[in-house]
Write a structure and sequence with these properties.
single chain, 1 helix, mainly beta, seven-stranded antiparallel β-sheet, 7 strands
């Protein structure tokens, strides 16, 4: 099956729009959201520690799961000599440990279409925190639990010929965070093919 030119134009336009939205916010002032954990589980038929694939679920099929992960010292600020670039030591361990889960699911809508949702749950995040004025640890440190921002993704497999497939994956994050900037995501709308 050959993709039609209007369809390819639509997919290209959607990807361009998502990229433009990301560029539009690139020069915004200070983004207080800290993405300590950058791994997002792939939503779909094979979500086993992988990147997003081109396969989609068959119509009316669903997949749900729960993944846990632990990170030790995921965010540390170091002092570096400005001239020699020599390591001078640790300034602050902003986040010393993070235990997080992701509840995720996907559902096959029609042939070639799938919708998926992932909701991160921060079970425990602790560390010294960060005072934005001084670059040192925050008074009282950091102790966070709560929901993160949900990621909603639509997959559309617009081309398949044997083992070769192309799938558009536009996705957005929804502001579902319950603990402020430490559990919110700065992920921009994106489109992959």
């Amino acid at each position: 099956m050959k993709p039609s030119l209007p369809l390819l134009g639509w997919v290209f336009g959607a990807c361009t729009m998502c990229a433009t939205l990301g560029v539009a916010r690139a020069d915004s002032p200070v983004d207080s959201a800290v993405d300590v954990q950058l791994f997002d589980i792939a939503l779909g038929p094979n979500p086993y520690l992988t990147v997003d694939g081109t396969d989609v679920l068959p119509p009316k099929a669903f997949h749900v799961g729960l993944m846990f992960q632990y990170l030790a010292d995921p965010l540390t600020i170091y002092d570096i000599h400005p001239d020699t670039k020599e390591y001078l030591g640790v300034r602050t361990q902003v986040v010393e440990s993070l235990l997080e889960g992701q509840l995720y699911g996907a559902y096959g809508l029609k042939q070639k279409y799938q919708i998926g949702v992932a909701l991160p749950v921060v079970l425990a995040m602790s560390g010294e925190g960060l005072d934005m004025e001084t670059g040192q640890g925050a008074p009282g440190g950091l102790s966070v639990t709560g929901l993160g921002d949900a990621r909603v993704e639509l997959a559309y497999q617009f081309y398949r010929n044997g083992n070769i497939a192309l799938t558009a994956l536009p996705s957005v994050t929804l502001p579902t965070s319950t603990s402020g900037s430490w559990t919110s995501s700065s992920m921009e709308p994106r489109c992959q093919a």
